Queue: 3 jobs
Job 1
Amino acid sequence: MNDTKFHPFDKTVTDSIILTTLNDFSNWARLSSLWPLLYGTSCCFIEFASLIGSRFDFDRYGLVPRSSPRQADLVITAGTVTMKMAPSLVRLYEQMPEPKYVIAMGACTITGGMFSTDSYTTVRGVDKLIPVDIYLPGCPPRPEAIIDAVIKLRKKIAREIRRDEKRLGQGKRYFTSNHRFDSLPNIGIRKYNKKFPNEFLDLEKASESLSGPEVMKPEISPIWRRRITKS
């Protein structure tokens, strides 16, 4: 009876095969090579810049910063987002390929911060514009907290199922309702909340409810009033 002979290659086959699913393999590849697009508008971005140095070395997590949204799958928003900048942020997000993720970094990005207390130009939360996956509070957050947010995002990606992602879509990840961008007259910073407490009015209705000097003419201090009368 002839003995069965095994090829030397067969002995190493069992040590070279990994059994997994296509979904897990795709998630592993994506979480290990995140390419972020840095959208920094204020002081929080300075804290993120320290991650590039050798002390924190965020390259060990597979992060490769990109300057083009078409090459990025992660956008990190750091700083205050104004109404004028909101369309640009939404346009950058729409240019990113699927799947894509968002980290909201800092109090100003999450809620508007101290700049939204009495301001009509600040967006009170970036999640009203684009879906947010990770909220990172702080003013500003420490670099260690940013690394922790990236680790939590990696865990979130590892639990994703491609079938559910196609079925739900990006719109299901919104946490708050959308903004309504309606134009308002220049009626002063401290008056717009009192004049329109519940709803936005168009320019015609707003101009009828306010007098002309209150809308068009700013308040002149006594010093400048004396200079104007002298001239």
Job 2
Amino acid sequence: MKFRHLPFLILLSVFLATPAQTIFAQDETQNQSTEADMTVGFSSTFGGVYYKDPLGTQLSGRLIPFEGNIDLNSYKLGVNDLISINIEANQPIFLRGLLVNPQGEVVLPMMGAVKLEGLTIPQAEEQISEIASRQLRDPIVDITIEYPRPNIIHISGGVPHPGKYVIPSQSRLDQAIFNSLTDGNRNMGRSTVNSSQILTGNYSLRNITILHTDSTITTADLVSYFRTGDLSSNPVLKNGDTINITTLKREAAKVSISGAVKSAYEIEYREGDTPSLLLEIAGGFDVIADNSRLHVYRQTEDGTYTVEVLFGEWDSFQLQPNDRIIALQGEYFDPSASAWVNGEVKIPGNFPIKSGQTTAFELLKLAGGMTNDALPSAAYLMRGGERNRIPNEFNTEIMKRTSDQVLQGLEYLDSETQLSRNRVYIDLTDEEQMQELKLLDGDRLYIPKDSKTIFVFGQVNNPGYFPFTNSEKSVRDYIVDAGGFALSADLDRIFILKAGNSTWYRVGDTTLESGDRIYVDRQPVEELNALRAYEIQKQQLRNQRTQLIMTGITTITGIITTLVAIGAL
């Protein structure tokens, strides 16, 4: 009896006759050109054992990523799983790269075919351990998944490309349906999911149903996944799952959230929606929000009514189809609000303000007041930031629709709009106005330097800057300083342009001050063709007058001749 197992032990010892006494089983489907690379190599070049893993090298070249780790307690082995088996016993055995065949079996040397399909990793280890114990003493089996099998899924419904798809193991729903919604490419191993291509389609992405092979049904919400990153809304698919996606009709129930939130949304309604979920989809509250309550507006046959939902109820309050959530604005103090002062102040820079409360007078006081070189009449304030745009900003395109302006008038309207955009009139010499003008975050106050000059330009012989001595000096005096009028000057069109707002005044309508500009217009210059036409018209008019005179003389001569003839009779 003691020699009963002798033939098996002799055969096993021959089979295991390797330097490390290890058996390696490789995938026989590899290309013949790589067989030399698939041999196991050991080397002691570096004073230890060096092992090159050719199977691992080949698998890494496939570059198909897997998300997370496989749960060995729930993952069930199946056809095309690539596994390795390590058996610790009186004679250790390592079987690398075993492929589960179409019968759901792996073929082990000296042990034969072992059925593994449908078994979890612990169950498969127990199965192999039981079979190995017939040949080995106290075997301990450890199974490793080298490469999980791909999954076959089915996509149906209102998608452009329904049908069967092969997806990598551990793939989530968004990757699985991407190609069925876009180009229909069946090679999902190389697909890159672009959420914009999914969300812009007219599909019911918040109520996707997944039918599993055990007849259970789960639902998924990809909108929540893309907006919040909630992985539970984008589940990992299993082999044999059937996904159904319907088209989203115009009359489908919706819910929305708007108001003081970071991003307002109107999305498809999903049973179980709560204010908390929609607030998360909207990215949370804006800084100006009242984060203690939300208003839910609900439409019924009797009209619209409001439900106030307090903070503690946001997770439990169940929204109904077509509910509208409004996040209210609250009292808000922005500690980051500031305004700039540049130019002729004692302390130029950026100062903290209470947006909508701090006045221009207070800001100028923070800046230490104006220097002696400041030109208050030329100062101006610019509104900063999109939030602080001028509230009564008008749309020139709308104004043009009913206007009777000619083309030049419309062009002038556009230029006026550009020049006055976000500019606020300010008079630093008017303390009452300074105390009434409220500043907003991002405002900029500019106070230019008083160069104590008057700029004379236009039709003068020597245009340029001239010292401003006193207000008693007349416009004519400054024109004399500029060399007098040029040859084409229009003496009836002399203007004063005020510093700061550049308003035009005729001489005598305003007082000349430092920083003002004097402009002398020129007589109109005739365009060449227009001048020639004018000269021709004048010549024609002279000819007509001459002809008229000659006609009159001829008529008078005829009358006189007639009278003379009558008198002679």
Job 3
Amino acid sequence: MESGEGTAESLIRNYRLGKTLGHGSFGKVKIAEHIRTGHKVAIKILNRRRMKSPDMEEKVRREIKICRLFVHPHVIRLYEVIETPADIYVVMEYVMRGELFDYIVEKGRLQEDEARRFFQQIIAGVEYCHRNMVVHRDLKPENLLLDLKGNVKVADFGLSNIMRDGHFLRTSCGSPNYAAPEVVSGKLYAGAEVDIWSCGVILYALLCGSLPFDDENIPNLFKKIKSGLYTLPSHLSPGARDLIPRMLIVDPMKRITTREIRQHPWFKVNLPRYLAVTPPNAVEDLKKPDEDIIQEVLRMGFARSQLIQSLQNRLQNDATVAYYLLFDKRSPISTGYLGAEFQESVSRARPREIMAQVLGAFQGLNVRWKKIGHYNMKCLFIHPIQNPDSMALSNHINENHYVNGITPTNANVSQLQGVVKFEMQLYKTSEVEYLLDLQRLSGSVFLFLDFCAFFMMRLDVP
């Protein structure tokens, strides 16, 4: 280990480090065992000296802080971050089966049903992170891992710039074949459309066993990518032949979005129920901690009150890390996340009853709203610290203004740090079941997550 070894050993005392799995621009990745639970994890060791600038280190810290909140079955979990004077240790989910890249090399082109299953999971993970304002920028089969049950996990989401210094051409494993035209042209890019292009190349590779743009000469490869010219094999179905070109449009403003991909007929074939709707938020897990797992953590010597409070406040400590490792170990995709937890997020109450409870909860949480459609509203949450005199709100829905006189054009309000704008939509998922979806439009991710936690505590939807 590098400098600061004694400090590092004391801080990572909960893990038994194993073999090195790989190397990146800023460090290496090791397999490790969480001693208290016996759960295997992957630990990325990022060397501070290699980050070169304080700005890069701050970006690393900020992106890790965001990704630590992610809980999705098709995104690699980030459990813990440990900082030492010399290194930053990022403790992540360990996926045993390896890269989707190796699977494609071994199998060649896949049957459409298998390729579609992978693609549905990839889009679900990518969309989840886009909704949380994180763009990957380096999606490729090497960054898509398979678990023992053949489910896809998007890796290095939000961390690709950390491990690769923000420039895929500077790494030994980097590949420009999946990069969008605006990227290889050197234009500024930060939007989700960059990932959509990469997903289009990945879908082509899954279905064809080859790449749409390929050339050993990099300048020639860039010309092909910027031209957007490629060949669709004749064996592709009409649906696939329609979807791929929509993703591989050179103009990023005309490129299909994840929402439009979800509505595409080819994508919707045999779409699993849990992927058909917005997945449960991390706050849903915090609302009802698993009592069996709590008891197991308590047997390790932790205090119940400390554990519950830490889970509710999303604190990182030895107790919560042990809880989440055990939670993931007991909740594989085939049973936990897609089973009981998903069912709890669906209501059988009547829509008017649900809306009455929602608006009642909104009133108590200082939320203002504007109706924009049937069971669809744009909302404004103002933290009490920012607006202490506005706790009593009208419960009438106005077509043109947020209740209590706040309009969407009130720039002074929207610029406050304690303000979050979001959209609320009630969906009908079956004849007797409804799903409430809250989507953040602007404002702090963390404040929005806090609001969601308080909101769900106030709801009493069966």
